Structures are given as structure tokens and as C-alpha cells.
């Protein structure tokens, strides 16, 4: 049973930084891709960043390019999202997910971690 647990969310002021972490247990070797997604109140879930376990980054959402960095540690089964220059528009629940390919679908999801950017 694949299980994903996110951590690192919280309240941060505009311009600040946060690092999200996703721990993967029971990893299925067929799950080659990891992604970070987010869902803001009243909005649909959107894909933020995608990476292969090899470390190859395949996607960043346009609004986070240059501000967010996704990384993976295959030995520790961890995936990270370093977020900087945060704005109130980044406020959302952030989810990590895993799937067979970077194109999706993503089959397993974590429970999410809240990120709130506010002064």
C-alpha cells in the first residue's frame, strides 16, 4: 500500500519561504513520477511541479517558475518543494502524488498540507 504524507505547511508572510516535504512509504516500483499539486479555496486543483525519481524535473506551473523548486531523494523516498517569494495567491492546500508517468494520471495522493501566505 503506497502512502504519502506531506509536511512543512504553515503561515508565512508575503515574500517569505517554506519547504514542503513528502514522505513516501510502501513505494510501488512502477510509480516513477512525483508531483506537487495545490487547491485554493473555490478553485480547481492545479498541478504545480512534477519530477521523476531520477531527479529530472518535467514541469513547473507558469506562476511558480523561478520561485519554486521541486527535488527528490530516491534513497529516502522523499520529495520536496522549496517555495520562495511567496504571495497570497500561493495560499492553498498542497498535495503530493505519485504515478507511473510524469504525464499522469497520479494514482496515490497525500492528505495535503495547508500553506497560508498572509501578513
Considering the chains and any ligands shown, give keywords for the structure.
119 residues, mainly beta, four-stranded antiparallel sheet
Account of the protein in words:
The protein is mostly beta strands. The protein is built from no helices and eleven strands. The chain has strands at 3-7, 10-12, 18-25, 33-39, 46-52, 57-60, 68-73, 78-83, 92-99, 108-109, 113-117. The strands form two sheets. Strands 2, 4, 5, 6, 9, 10 and 11 form a seven-stranded mixed sheet that branches. A hairpin with a 4-residue loop joins strand 7 and strand 8 (78-83).
- The amount of beta strand, in percent, is over 45%
Question: Ends: how far apart?
Answer: 40 Å
Count of DSSP E strands? 11
Helical content (DSSP H or I, runs of 4+):
under 10%
Low-confidence stretches: none
Structural class: mainly beta
- Series of H and E elements: EEEEEEEEEEE
Task: Characterize the largest beta sheet: strand count, sense, and whether it forms a barrel.
Answer: 7 strands, mixed
Q: Assign an overall shape.
A: globular
**Mean pLDDT level:** 95
Counting DSSP H or I runs of 4 or more residues, the number of helices is 0
Topology:
Blueprint: E1 3-7, E2 10-12, E3 18-25, E4 33-39, E5 46-52, E6 57-60, E7 68-73, E8 78-83, E9 92-99, E10 108-109, E11 113-117
Parallel strand pairs: 2-11
Antiparallel strand pairs: 1-3, 3-8, 4-5, 4-9, 5-6, 7-8, 9-10, 9-11
Amino acid at each position: 500500500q503506497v502512502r504519502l504524507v506531506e509536511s512543512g505547511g504553515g503561515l508565512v508572510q508575503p515574500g517569505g519561504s517554506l519547504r514542503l516535504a513528502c514522505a513516501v512509504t510502501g513505494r510501488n516500483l512502477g510509480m516513477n513520477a512525483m508531483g506537487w499539486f495545490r487547491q485554493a479555496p473555490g478553485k480547481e486543483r492545479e498541478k504545480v511541479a512534477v519530477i521523476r525519481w531520477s531527479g529530472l524535473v518535467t514541469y513547473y506551473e507558469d506562476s511558480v517558475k523561478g520561485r519554486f523548486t521541486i527535488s527528490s531523494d530516491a534513497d529516502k523516498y522523499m520529495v520536496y518543494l522549496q517555495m520562495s517569494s511567496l504571495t497570497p495567491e500561493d495560499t492553498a492546500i498542497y498535495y503530493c502524488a505519485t504515478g507511473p508517468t510524469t504525464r499522469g494520471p497520479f494514482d496515490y495522493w497525500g492528505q495535503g498540507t495547508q500553506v497560508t501566505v498572509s501578513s
